[in-house]
Amino acid sequence: MGLTMIPGNDFVSDFEVCVYYRGRRVLQTVVPHSQGFRLVAPDSPGSPSPSPGLPDIPLPDVGCLSDQLQATYTTKLLQRLAPGVIIRAEQSALWGGRWGRCHAYWSHSEIPSVGAPGGELPKEEFAPLLRVQQYTQDLIGYIKGARGSPDYTLWLCFGEDWPDYQRPWKKKLIMVQVIPKVLETLYEMSQHGGSSSLQGAEPDLRISDSLQGKSLLEFLEDWEQEMDAENYG
Q1: Is the model's pLDDT at 111 over the cut of 60?
Q2: 16-29 residue pLDDT tens
């Protein structure tokens, strides 16, 4: 199997999605082998989508909340969510945009540092949130001991400013964590000498086949050069 089995111009991955209401996890799910998904209100799955073909992930109903004031404010945000927030993989990057009245914001961490990437998602268009080539460069630097752990997780905040250096993420009404599993697996492999601790998981098998006898570092360096050539070729 070739490079297209892991992120590249054909970025296909499993996505782990966790939804938090005021820091309490109310949903954890995995979208298998996809190029993205749409986050929608509890009563909106299957509604017309700006990106047909991407699966819907309905956010949980507020019936799971015991605090009625929290439930009221969360409901107001959910009612403004339609047609939804879309995360889409394309052109070696993860892109995001919102198509409803509810503003949405993003970062790479639940505790973002000042000046770190993040901000508001654009309305009715997409903006790049995570570029695979940059992640690959950062992972190479991490393996060589030249930098810290690379970022591969997205955190989304609905209806409230984010990043917010005054209020922690657990105080926000709706936060969503998105983990592209294939990027997580590459990071885990870098910590285990090129092999993943997730034995038998499908993304691991695809990546292991793609290595074709190379070390993980050699593979990443070759892959990064290929992406660079595609960008400037």
Answers
A1: yes
A2: 999 999 999 999 99
- At residue 117, what are phi and psi to the nearest 5 degrees? -55, 145
In the numeric block, which tokens belong to residue 4? 């297209």
CB atoms within 10 A of CB 90: 15
C-alpha–C-alpha distance, residues 7 and 232, integer Å:
18
d(CA 76, CA 83): 15
Locate tokens 């997580």: which residue? Answer: 184
Query: For residues 122 and 124, what is the distance between their CA atoms, to the nearest angstrom?
Result: 7
Q: Which of 155, 36, 49, 150 is nearest to 91 (CA)?
A: 36
Instruction: Report how far residue 222's alpha carbon sits from residue 217's, in angstroms, rounded to the nearest whole number.
Output: 9
For the chain, give the DSSP string: --GGGSSSSS--EEEEEEEEETTEEEEEEEEEEESEEEEE-TT-TTS--SSTTSPEEEPPPGGG-S-HHHHHHHHHHHHTTTT-EEEEEETTEEEEEE-SSS-EEEES-SSPPTT-SEEEPPBSS-EEEEEHHHHHHHHHHHHTTSS-PPP--EEEEESS-SS-SSS-GGGSS-EEEEEEHHHHHHHHHHHTTT--SSTT-HHHHHHHHHHTT--HHHHHHHHHHHHHHHHH-
Going from the C-alpha of 131 to that of each of 65, 140, 229, the distances in angstroms are 36, 14, 15
pLDDT band at 6 (very low <50, low <70, confident <90, very high): very low
pLDDT, tens digit, for every residue of 116-139?
999 999 999 999 999 999 999 999
